[in-house]
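WARN no homologs supplied; continuing
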Amino acid sequence: MKRRAFLAAASLLPLFVSPEALAAKKKNSEKNTSKKSAKSSSKKSSKKSSSSRKETPPSRPQAQPQTTAENSVLDSAHPGSSATRLPPVKAPEPPALWRTFEVATTVQLQPSRGRQRLWLPLPLNQDTLYQRNLGHTWQGNFELGSLRRLPDGDLEAFYCEWKEGVTPRLELLTTVTTADRHFDVSRRTLPPEREDILRRNLQASRLLPNDGEAHKLAQRIIGRILDPVAQARAIFDWVVENTEYDPGLPGCGNGDVRRQIEQHRFGGRSADINGLFVSLCRAIGIPARRVFGQRIEQSRIASSLGIRGDATHAAHCRAEFYVPGYSWIPVDPSDVRRTIAMEGLDLRDSKLTAMRKILFGVWEMNWMAYNVAEDLTLPNGPALPFFTLPRLERLEGALDGLDPGSFVYSIRSRQQLG
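OK structure emitted
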């Protein structure tokens, strides 16, 4: 059974690797082979002459500055690392295969004393190479309804209000098109990110520390690794091996990484596990951020990584980190831990070996991204650590869609064919 599971998972790898990356890998392999043979013949010819020379002690390597959130890879990248030894610049190529989805969110509320106000998260308002927003339509008996956006562009939401005595109802239809996203080590794909965005994603937030114990832990994980991509990979592997996924928690979890590090109890749901990855990256000077969103279809990687039935309870947070020359690199250590928890797998299972390779550098786009906002204030609304679920404000109190007794909503998705 293990052999069949491994072959099934390994067969997915070509789905998420570009032809250019495979060609570059083959070329590098042939180049390394020729170098080895040349080096071997050179050793034989110089062996006799080198024995008569006086040996000189190797020079001591110069100490490199330690990267931190204040002294980041953007300022002092190690010479020869992936942040300085850049591949040739190539124009970004849009993916060939896009899939279009209609996502319908339906909300039914109980009458309430006073006005009721509702916010719904919307997909990214800026087009990317993995997602494009094709627009929204809505209908309902609200008195006021409109799209609202934060000034920095990190978040867009649908906001509506109902007056007292009305039984509120709303249906919002969103159309998005998505394409699988993957990191190509052979391609310098995009122009540099804005400096202010990178600096913001090095800073600590209320739930994500970047100093103290977080910095010490991150330094222990990376050891003497100097390349930022390899450092992020070491953190990814550590998070996978030292966290626990808890399917009993609501939504994406509470995202409180500060508490995880203080209590030395690592895990939770996607906002917690991927948030830990982001926090540790920031602690050693690698810009990183959580991307909040929603699963909208079944998965080709593992059954536990897709929706079953509708998408109402399929909110999911992912992560990405930034390296100069490569822009943002997608990862998802939480989904490795989710597969272990939901399918009863062991860390040594051959299927997980393939999954760990795929989920460092790949987002399967059976998911749509909402926003990257943290420590935010909703337009005309309350302050939140992050925003992935419908938010209702009324005189009786605030609700976030996790209480089925008083706040009924559903999310249905359908792929458009043809």
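DSSP finds nine helices and 19 strands in the chain.
OK
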